[in-house]
Write a structure and sequence with these properties.
Three copies of one chain form a homotrimer. Chain A is built from five helices and 14 strands. By secondary structure, chain A is of the alpha+beta class. In chain A, helix 1 runs parallel beside helix 4. Chains in contact: A-B, A-C, B-C. Chains A and B meet through helix 1 of A and strand 1, strand 2 and helix 2 of B.
């Protein structure tokens, strides 16, 4: 099918042939499909980071893109292989919660358990089960052809997000680092209660900002305080800041430096946005 | 030519422009060819690992794929640049043994020495010799057009594999690690004597298992013993096992851990599969 | 547009989703465009290395390739987003000097400041500004459609290159390392004064070599002397040499070793080619 697109994500790394072999399988079964790597450098078995990267990527891919995601520490166990039709996109991968974030708030989704006709390996379902299923979807097959319906997909825990008792701070957690030393937090768009907390003010282009931004500050679990600014150049080189990143999430950064080096912050560490 | 596919493998790494430049050369000469990276992270000059990755990848790529493999420590010397037509695939690269494993047992192959018309660099035949040749093949040219026939391709040594004197163990060697900390051994499909040794019993789906699997154990060169199991979940977290990997080779792994960390095993180390 | 090609370069690394998201944006807006990565592993913010890699890659890509280059430490400041039509190619990226080397000596270029219609992020213009612009160019749009003309693009400093007072040596500097431990210098093709200095003799295939190659030697800033040879095999394993690399620049290498390990040479260190 002309213009079909498969977006690939895995924890296979780039040293071996695994990611390339999945692409070979697709090229063989659905010639002409455009193959785009989101990343293959998810830390081994880190389903949560994988779920986050898929959530980040989804809005920017063409209509009908098939997201083939293989972070699969349970391969060879009874965890189900699934294919999902969402509103305008497809997902193929293990039923381990990896699609939780990207499916949230995007309308009804239909999931099937992928039927395994030929016995393949116990350790490489990316090649033997998921890539063939993704190729079928890219070639125009309906998900229903891939297997019987499955109810109750496994759901990943949501990133921590709550409001303080005195209602003067939002408490979240550190998520993923990027290559530049910045780190995304759970505070912002990737939340179910975001709207209630009036987080919209940070949305770029928002015109009715009710949040007292001038009083805002970010406080780490160790008590360090960071100003909330528009962009890196608003603080001197080497100084830390919080800002709204390109995913509409609060991020922590150091102008030409690294948050991990400066604060020892790791994914999961508490962070709060206070305005009291 | 629509649907032509070139699979690339090299030791160029991803920091520089080398791999991208090879693709530019191909896009210029054979527009529309699908370019799929197997990997560019072969350790510099490691022809044997390159040969193994090509062997792993071959069965999963489309008919007529051109495998462009540039691990070429002898570039600039008298080693020959070659193009090979195998049964259903092509190879382009240096004649240094890199295609030995993928050509084994796959029917007759025709090799030519690539004629070098324009003087190029002494150090980057990937760009100046091999990518143009691969582009010609992808565009439908016959290998004979690329240069005169060459006999006696250089052959790589085969991975170690023998049977013990008492005929109660197969002795092999450790091959390549993967990103997850597992390591492939030479015991299994990638052998010329595999059939004789009745290694088929481990082939997934085999029904006539004559091998006494219950008695089987793997013994490292340091004397550690590992059980042979189906998959990781069959041993506790942190425990080692041997299993048949996705290439039908015996692999050594640690459930959510690393073989190299646990046993200090490196490629080339002796490993045996015993059943006495 | 069939056969359109976009070549991507950035400092995004491969751990995150950034490079993949840029490709998603392009696939959405210019379906069927061939996407080729030059590299995404430019050291963060290293505009000069980015400029060098673009210069290396340009000659090998198809006519009309769009070079989308995002090494953009000034994102969110007043630095201009630009699109450039050169002779046979296009550039899209920040106006921070990244295109200096590739534009040099390649005829007139027309630059426009990319008009930003929709407010996007302050931190990811690769996704919100540059990828959409590159997609438009790949789809056949004229650069003039992207925004108003801009004069006086920012220019990067040129690599150091001078002739000694006694006119018996060319003094240059170390540029970028490659994965094999070799390092490119500024002496050779990437210079404005190369012609004057009669550097042509090293050009492979040159027949009228006026340079006394037999007397030539390379001297590091620490006083080490290296012979000038054709290729690695001309010196014993472990020995250093200088040679003309695949970009027609003088390179320093160690046969099966690393220049950085052997001499502690880093980018910017002085190097000279002497013949007196």
């Amino acid at each position: 099918m002309a213009d079909a697109c498969i977006a690939l994500l895995s924890d296979f790394g780039s040293q071996g042939a695994y990611a390339g072999v999945m692409k070979g399988v697709i090229a063989k079964r659905a010639p002409g499909t455009q193959l785009i790597d989101i990343t293959h450098e998810i830390p081994p078995g880190d389903i949560r980071q994988a779920a986050f990267r898929l959530w980040q990527a989804l809005p920017y891919f063409p209509e009908k893109t098939v997201f083939l995601a293989v972070v699969d520490p349970g391969v060879g166990t009874s965890r189900k292989p699934v294919a999902i039709r969402g509103e305008g996109f497809f997902c193929v991968g293990p039923d381990n919660g990896i699609f939780t974030y990207m499916l949230e708030g995007r309308g009804p989704a239909t999931a099937v358990q992928i039927r395994i006709d030929e016995p393949g390996s116990n350790t490489f379902h990316g090649r033997d089960v998921f890539a063939p299923a993704a190729a079928l979807l890219a070639a125009g097959a309906d998900v229903a052809r891939l297997g019987p319906p499955v109810e109750g997909l496994l759901s990943l825990a949501w990133p921590r997000l709550s409001i303080s008792k005195r209602r003067d701070a939002i408490i979240g957690e550190m998520m993923c680092p990027d290559r530049f030393g910045n780190m995304v937090t759970s505070i912002g768009a990737l939340t179910r209660i975001g709207d209630l907390l009036r987080l919209q003010p940070w949305t770029p282009g928002c015109e009715s900002c009710e949040f007292p931004a001038s009083k805002a500050r970010v406080v780490t679990g160790h008590g360090q305080r960071l100003p909330v600014r528009q962009t890196f150049a608003d603080v001197p080189v080497g100084k830390a800041l919080a800002y709204i990143g390109s995913d509409n999430l609060l991020e922590i950064g150091v102008n030409q430096g690294s948050v991990a080096d400066a604060f020892g912050l790791i994914p999961g560490a508490e962070i709060s946005l206070a305005w009291g």
